[in-house]
Amino acid sequence: MTPLIDGLQYANWSEKVFSQMRAGGVDAVHVTITYHETFRETVLQIERWNRWFEAFPNLIFQGRTAADVALARQTGRTAIFFGAQNPSCIEDDIGLVEILHSLGLRFMQLTYNNQSLLASGCYEAEDTGLTRMGREVVAEMNRVGMVVDMSHSAERSTLQAIEHSTRPIAITHANPASWHAARRNKSDTVLRALGQSGGMLGFSVYPHHLKGGSACTLPEFCEMIARTADLMGIGNVGIGTDLCQDQPDSVVEWMRVGRWTKAADYGEGSASAPGFPPMPGWFADNRDFGAIADGLAAVGMARAEVAAVMGGNWLRFFEAGFAARALATPQQTAARA
């Protein structure tokens, strides 16, 4: 059977959420463990996860390789793969990429919404593309087996990451801008390049990314997926819900503002009343993935195509993206010289 994989969640983690993952048959989830945290603060987040793995071993465990998805299915648990939504965790030290990978980090965004040391975020007025450090970090991520994620990055930066990376990259949680013109959603130019390079797009159910917001219907969402699959190729799309279940509204301030400003800057939210919008009625939590699968079938997708979108494509991407590349032997190095 094909696995069920979610390409991004940032829930307020609890036994309830983990139990809902199991009730929904979710085999693997890429979870955000860090936004603006420093390296040491990120390690503290990993410590929190270690305590959850210890407390709920029958529900969750830490995923490190694609083979852990099969292990999750065999043992009736959910594999948790760590990711960062900003490169703050590596500070200005490229050596921390490998160290964080050894601790289990498998995804890292080159930017959140702002300019970073690596690239430009989607809220910047000027998109300068990958920086010198950005190109070096992408190469290091390619080497160790950490996925380049451009979900919050600006267009030029994203296109340059696709071109510069020697492994396919991901946009783990976004939708087409041609469907809904949120600044976080991606142009057809980006999506076409992503598909041609073998990259992955995870479709988001976060209301700010949906046409009609919280009122978006399941058929509208699934029809959008089908049209995007035609543009990118059916093998390059999956689900990345961006589920922020049970988070207090105060968390939006940390996500959007961090420590970089004293002012209120909540991006797609409201500066006067920031908070999480209501989820669409057809997706409240991890028990609702079946509704998406049924919706895809209802808009004409074949069974194999539905299975690919719901997890098969992510699994193949994990297999290609998580393994470290072997170092060249002295003989190989000499042969290339």
Structure description:
The protein is an alpha/beta fold and about 325 residues long. It has one domain: Metal-dependent hydrolases (TIM Barrel, Alpha-Beta Barrel), CATH 3.20.20. About 40% of the residues lie in helices and about 10% in strands. The protein is built from 12 helices and 9 strands. Strands 1, 2, 3, 4, 5 and 6 form a 6-stranded parallel beta sheet that branches. A 3-stranded parallel beta sheet has the order 7-8-9. The termini are far apart. About 45% of the residues are buried. The model has no long low-confidence stretch (mean pLDDT about 95).
Radius of gyration from the alpha-carbon trace, in angstroms: 19 Å
The string of secondary-structure elements, in order, is EHEHEHEHEHEHEHEHEHHHH
Strand percentage, roughly? 5-15%
Total number of domains = 1
CATH superfamily: Metal-dependent hydrolases
Spatial shape: globular
The rounded distance between the terminal residues' Cα atoms is 47 Å
Residue-averaged pLDDT, rounded?
A: 94
How many helices? 12
Largest sheet: 6 strands, parallel
